[in-house]
């Protein structure tokens, strides 16, 4: 009975995953894995309540360190906020695959594993890392890196291992971390600009702070927000053009770098297509196209294409990604748009001048005319050249591991 139901469920899941190709998520379901073990029901329940379960499901090559109901009772007796609870539990999700065998064969007997807590951007310094050490007598110790070298929990047993996608193990107790347990700010209390400034988008953050667009971003956090912030080098090169825009143009340009929904990286990867932005307003489309380019996710406007080169934060309902270039909407920079014939005079077509027909209430004055296209430095590709050199062109996300996994999957895919 139960077996056939499980089989039916797997078939359904298989069909769903096939349907979702080439999405690489949904290969495992932590909720379903843990549901088979009543001793982890509390841990499982809180993975769902804190919304960590879907984040675990969409990642690959991870290890979940579960604690039994008694261990969870200790944690719950601290009466933490849900945000803090989420941080503590995310410290128990290692962003690498460790099964029993690998745990007992750690090179040099010790390793440092990045955790999902580290990936949230909430952890400072080394507090998002867990130190794994092989101990005497075949034991394996786990300890948050900021725990002063005291081993706080030990490996108990394997719960389930799906090489090399997910390993679920039991550890003896909750990993103590004052930083993870500290009351976590809700997403709406998060300081967007401080976060961007601290992670390579200082110029964009400062530009935003001086503009009403900052409020638009704030107002959208709670209901879901994804920001694409150009890195500092890209932004510095763009500032002369930015300064040339009208007040409304400046606001639209900044708002063009946000979309009013939360999109994880895998979400972006699997939902390519035309997307509205925070600048979209009636006749002013201000849209762009999300498109995969090999392992990269690119954002294409009619003028130029930017690439995501880093993840600053990715915790529902907020994601912030760094771009290698500023996004140039055709509504503001139509003169830079590639034209089929080399037209000497940038005569704006009625279509490109989308501002004029229907002025909206939000952006009253039509943005300033676009910059002339005579100077080669103004050409969008001039920006590309000096800006792709930074960031090593590498896909920096969880220390490149994620990129590596995607890359290998890509090769696998090519060989099919
Ligand atoms: C591991 O994940 C990949 C990618 O999602 C999937 O294709 C594969 O079937 C998974 N392996 C197992 C054993 O579940
Ligand atoms: C995971 O499994 C749980 C319990 O079986 C189910 O409620 C949930 O919808 C599943 N999630 C996904 C993404 O399949
Ligand atoms: C892990 O902690 C132990 C004990 O403090 C220390 O000796 C070891 O160097 C640490 N491992 C790493 C990789 O930092
Ligand atoms: C956020 O941080 C910036 C500095 O980066 C500061 O100027 C601003 O006032 C802060 N905003 C809030 C709402 O605290
Ligand atoms: C700014 O606008 C002026 C007048 O339209 C133009 O001459 C100048 O080249 C523009 N500068 C930039 C950097 O776009």
UniProtKB/TrEMBL annotation:
The keyword Transport does not apply. It is a lipid-anchor; GPI-anchor. Residues 27-175, 188-327 form the FAS1 domain. It is found in: Cell membrane. It holds the Pfam family Fasciclin. SUPFAM superfamilies: FAS1 domain. Residues 339-349 have a biased composition (Pro residues). Gene3D superfamilies: FAS1 domain. The keyword Ligase does not apply. The gene is LOC105176595. Belongs to the fasciclin-like AGP family. Residues 1-27 form the signal peptide. GO terms for cellular component: plasma membrane; side of membrane. Keywords: Cell membrane, Glycoprotein, GPI-anchor, Lipoprotein, Membrane, Proteoglycan, Repeat, Signal. May be a cell surface adhesion protein. Its main location: membrane. Residues 339-390 are annotated as: Disordered. It comes from Sesamum indicum. InterPro entries: FAS1_dom_sf (IPR036378), FAS1_domain (IPR000782), Plant_FLA (IPR033254). This is Fasciclin-like arabinogalactan protein 1.
